[in-house]
Amino acid sequence: MTGEFLRTSTIRRHLYGATGLALLIALYLLTGLTGHDPWRGDDARHFGPILEMLQGNHLLFPAIAGEPETDFPPLYYWAGAAFARLLAPFLPLHDGARLATTVFTALAIFWITRAATRLYGRETRTPAALLTLGTLGLVLHAHETQPMIALMAMQAFTLAGLSHIPTRPVLGGVQAGMGAALAFLAGGLPGVVLSLPLFVVVITACPECRNPRASSGLIIGLSLAIGASALWPLVLHYQSPELLALWWRNEWRELWAGAMSGNEFARLAELLGWFAWPLWPIALWSLWRTRRHLLRVSTLLPITALMFALAWIILNGSLSPASMLPLVPPLALLAASGVPSLRRGAANAFDWFGIMTFGVFTLLVWIAWSAQVFLWPPGLARHLVRVAPDFALRAPEISAIAGIAIVAAWVLLAWRLPRSPNRAPANWALGMTMLWCLTIALLKPWFDHDRSYRPAATSLKIALSGEREDCVAMVGLSASQRASFHYFAGIRPERVINNETQCGFLLVFDDRSDAQKPAPEWQQIWEFRRGGGRQQEIFRLYRRD
């Protein structure tokens, strides 16, 4: 009896301890990573440069279907290509490449927890990891081909290094310098904005770092960051100076030219409200609690990182959710520092709000599955049929059994969760992991059907199979569509310049059924329609007569 009780107690301690946290992180990161095509949007778009590198092209400067892509430097694409090549015997190229996101997300979580431990103590290590997992805006980007995840990870690496400055300045400076250099290689000038100014702020405004040892560590780190950051541009200058000039012009223009206007700040606040939940309410509580000690490195460092991230978002003018990822590390640090001091009533309310929130989201996912299988509710079922009239869910009973098991495991784990200051963050991490696993179990076939360009590319490849070899020009294709046609059909669509092209074929993307022909000499030989309603997409192929 006593032995059984001890075994049960040991299992429970491991399940709700470090072992359980590691298993939860692994389940969160690996679920839904493989088994589906590159989905339209960032997932397909950022696989394009990886595919070029796998084919031995554009190894130094990213490109999509042969055209230079200036959005990100090559760090993430190098990692994606390495994983795709390494796992090629076991996984499709796009699934292997997506593992780079998993590794960078895991590194970001690790470095956030290390920084929290150094700044606030060991009791904040677990809340830092749990709150990062529970962030609403992170989950989708952590499972797609997304270079911003690499930038976020290197930002967290820089923060972890700077958090070491008061105690081990040389080691901290070297770590921060490496993080800043890799942040530049991951994000370009945004990486510089998010990392290098932190050195200057810490060395000038933090009383704990105004001593020769800390200053020397920061100077070493800053020198390492600047020197290492110059390596890629120098190599690129000697190999392809025109690409370096193109990259520099685009980086500078995108960094400053599109600053937000006044009416966009409301949309930004709305986006941040859900993207950074539940980090920002606890972070505000932490700031209030430490309002008299804002110049301590434990408070100054994450606040400064948060301010620089917000400044970059405002100057860049982008309201895409992926652009909000650099807010996660500093907010996670601030939130982790506030968890141990949460009052019992606030912690209980936060806990129950998380359970109720994920309970509602779970119900919505089941309703979406029911609309596919039982055509109920009717309104949602009609919408799904209109958007994808040829979709049919196969083996719904298997997905239903998996969904029931996932929900049952969540209820059991949440019910048995020990009472502690970490209970509320643990419930958010458990709930987010459960919701993502349930969504993959019930709705992944729908997303794969609705968001993959494989059918269109395969049909186009068949249409061109009987034609003589010639290049294909394009009008209206997005980056994700060009990458998908290159991957699935082996076609590199070329741009039309000044309404002229030497190609014998013209591929046109449109969302209107009554689109006019480009010119009289072009004869339509192929058409492919996907989706329906406002999401309808139409591809037409013309041959020069």
Oligomer state equals single chain
What class, by secondary structure content?
alpha/beta
Main sheet makeup: 5 strands, mixed
**DSSP helical segment count:** 24
Low-confidence parts lasting 5 or more residues at pLDDT below 50? none
Fraction in beta strands: 5-15%
In whole angstroms, the N-to-C terminal distance is 87 Å
Shape: globular
Number of strands: 7
Nearest-integer average pLDDT: 91
The side-by-side strand order for the widest beta sheet comes to 4-3-5-7-6
Gyration radius over CA: 25 Å
Helix content: 55-70%
Membrane topology: Multi-pass membrane protein
Subcellular location: Cell membrane
Main location: membrane
Protein name: Glycosyltransferase RgtA/B/C/D-like domain-containing protein
Quickly describe the structure.
Helices cover 65% and strands 6% of the residues.
Question: Can you offer a commentary on this structure?
Answer:
With 545 residues, this protein is an alpha/beta fold. Helices cover 65% and strands 6% of the residues. It has 24 helices and seven strands. It has a five-stranded mixed beta sheet with strand order 4-3-5-7-6, with helices on one face. A two-stranded antiparallel sheet has the order 1-2. Strand 6 and strand 7 form a beta hairpin. Helix 7 packs across helix 18, helix 11 packs antiparallel against helix 12 and helix 21 runs antiparallel to helix 22. The longest helix has 30 residues. The relative contact order is 0.11. The mean pLDDT is 91. It comes from Aromatoleum petrolei. It is found in: Cell membrane.
